[in-house]
């Protein structure tokens, strides 16, 4: 690469950085994107995409085992070939990550593999395979993402101790697995492995799984985990582990005393930490807000030429929030009048059943004022019954006086696909009847959102309305 000056330099090519680079290219801003490891970052390579690929495979495996419920006879043993499964997952990842590099190139964005350090408000040093290279730019965007948090006594360098990356690359199905952390990553991966044959124990330090999510959804997920044979230990702390003759034993402190859990692996999923170290932030005086880089409504730091987006900047640490911020910052750099003004960032947990939320949950809404709640069970929706997926509910929360939709929680099959309508409704300040009077095709899962919106104001057709 002969050029050393750009209008914008983006550090990191994950779900925040590469969309930022593509949008900058579309806006004819001369841009360089620097990636330390792999195009697509954690999300595409060792996070969102590979985990959902394996979760999908595990669900198909479970569905085949219950094919008899639909009158389908499956002869012979149904088994998992982990080698072929991992190869399929890797091909999914390869297609998507290859697409990132292609899209950047198609939009005339320069690309470089290396480790970047900010050495001035407009200068970046990059350690590459060929040595150090220096580049200058009017604008710098930090999009370095996050990494799994390591806890004392459970070093990821140790073979039996897994982070999410190692768990997604297992060459065998663990016979026994302890999951430390009952948040979304632990339950997604633990639930997936339980479906394909692992005996899973979840250890959570807090009194509940999925802290911060709708209480009704958490109860349903807990029941399904129990039905799947997953043991859940709440208010329990992981103390350490040691090797045994046939694997390892994980020591935990429960309300009833210390307990030793035999296992083959222990998966640690207690959260993620922003990758803000070794970037040169201190050298240029960039301020932090706790563990995150401090940013304003345009995602600009206190150094006007430098922006930060995605996990490194602020909560929520979600890929789609990072993408939104990446495109926003690109437009700010190009001179457009943009600020972060999203009313909601939908969140999805790919457990069984899935849970998805947009806006406020019921507890948050009640804390703010008087509300009405429309709740419709999946069992009232024809398409859910034909799917054989009746565990779940749709919940629409509205302002009691104006009926404006404040939040939607969906817990059940395809919740991840259904929540986008709710996010749009909240962004548009829609009222219950804006959704309720919109004709939804029949029979579909989406009818449940319409029915729950009408239930919130006492006009549901397929359930008995509450007085």
What do you see in this structure?
The protein folds into three domains: 5-148 and 273-333, FAD/NAD(P)-binding domain (3-Layer(bba) Sandwich); 161-270, FAD/NAD(P)-binding domain, CATH 3.50.50.60; 347-455, FAD/NAD-linked reductase, C-terminal dimerisation domain (Enolase-like, domain 1, 2-Layer Sandwich), CATH 3.30.390.30. It has 14 helices and 24 strands. It has helices spanning 17-26, 41-46, 48-65, 82-106, 164-167, 184-195, 215-227, 281-284, 319-333, 362-368, 382-387, 415-427, 432-436, 447-455; strands at residues 5-11, 31-35, 110-113, 115-120, 123-128, 131-142, 146-148, 161-162, 176-180, 199-203, 231-233, 237-244, 247-254, 257-263, 265-268, 272-274, 288-289, 292-293, 306-308, 347-349, 355-359, 371-377, 393-399, 405-411. The strands form six sheets. Strands 1, 2, 3, 4, 5, 6 and 19 form a seven-stranded mixed sheet that branches.
**Averaged pLDDT:** 97
Number of helices: 14
Q: Low-confidence parts lasting 5 or more residues at pLDDT below 50? A: none
The level 1 CATH classification of the largest domain is Alpha Beta
Report, as a whole number of angstroms, the end-to-end distance: 70 Å
Q: What's the number of structural domains?
A: 3
Work out the number of β strands.
24
Silhouette:
globular
Biggest sheet features: 7 strands, mixed
CATH superfamily of the largest domain: FAD/NAD(P)-binding domain
Instruction: Bin the helical content.
Output: 25-40%
